[in-house]
Amino acid sequence: MTYILKTQDLTKVFSGKEVVSHVNMCVRKGEIYGFLGPNGAGKTTVMKLITNILKPSFGNIEVFGSELTNQSFDILKRMGNIIEYPIFYEKLTARENLELHCQYMGYHQQDAIHEALSMVHLTNINQKSVKNFSLGMKQRLGVARAIITKPELLIMDEPINGLDPVGIKEMRELFRRLCDDYGITILVSSHILSEIEQIADTIGVINNGHLINQVKMKTIKDYKKEYIEIVCSQCHQASFILDNELGIHNFKVMDDKILRIYDTHITQSHIAKTLILNDITIDSIRKKERSLEEYFFDMINGGAIID
Ligand SMILES: Nc1ncnc2c1ncn2[C@@H]1O[C@H](COP(=O)(O)OP(=O)(O)OP(=O)(O)O)[C@@H](O)[C@H]1O
């Protein structure tokens, strides 16, 4: 398996508190890795560690097969990033900002600026200085700057912040193109599940500094999401019957009235009949689908993935 990025036990402590805890992240070459987590989960900190903006308190990072150190200039040159909000020289134009960036990176490719600006659909901006750009325009310019040198690994922290729905769709398409047509590996973070779901090949879920799960999108899509939901006022008695009479162990009592059975090999009618024969009054029983949100909610709340 070719991993372009691997972290081992990656840990960051701020003021005695572990905000990133023993993260073992593996990003495959050529994929889009969606880094998903609620606000404050530790996404930005992990990305700052990977781009050498912060130093790990513990653990290590391997990029392109070499360990990242203070001296890893060659590795960093092969990476592009947007971490937090992109900062520009506000009085300069987009083109002037990109020219400075290319000089700094030692990248002298004719047409690179024009190509990057048109890839992010930032055209007709002529002499406008960046201070007059909207947040969405700045975000696009940030992506243009990150991709201008055709990096092998692109790291983007919440890149769709500030974009309108059309802009978000364009960015999604751009990321897919960068990955498929240019072979760029992308690590992109978001706290919006639906965004990550639409773009990622692999999802890594982080919560409270812990990487809770790393899973291929295909596995999630193939995941059996069907369950039987029973609404009744005697859930605890019902669960006893499921366990002891029907041999169903894979279920969850959601609250006083709702019980979910994830083990669907016994028919709904047989379950209903058995419960009724045991004097359980059923308000309703029906098959339902677990949404991706519920899947992640379960994962974040203690990893209780029921299958
Ligand atoms: N320089 C710092 N000093 C102290 N604590 C910090 C520092 N930077 C981040 N933190 C804390 O580390 C935790 C993780 O923050 P981080 O910005 O990495 O999360 P995040 O997942 O990117 O969140 P968001 O989506 O809100 O950007 C938070 O509790 C944050 O307050």
From TrEMBL:
Coiled coil: none annotated. GO terms for molecular function: ATP binding; ATP hydrolysis activity. It comes from the Bacteria. It holds the Pfam family ABC_tran. Residues 5-233 form the ABC transporter domain. SUPFAM superfamilies: P-loop containing nucleoside triphosphate hydrolases (SSF52540). Keywords: ATP-binding, Nucleotide-binding, Transport. Belongs to the ABC transporter superfamily. This is ABC transporter ATP-binding protein. The lineage of its organism: Bacteria, Bacillati, Bacillota, Clostridia, Lachnospirales.
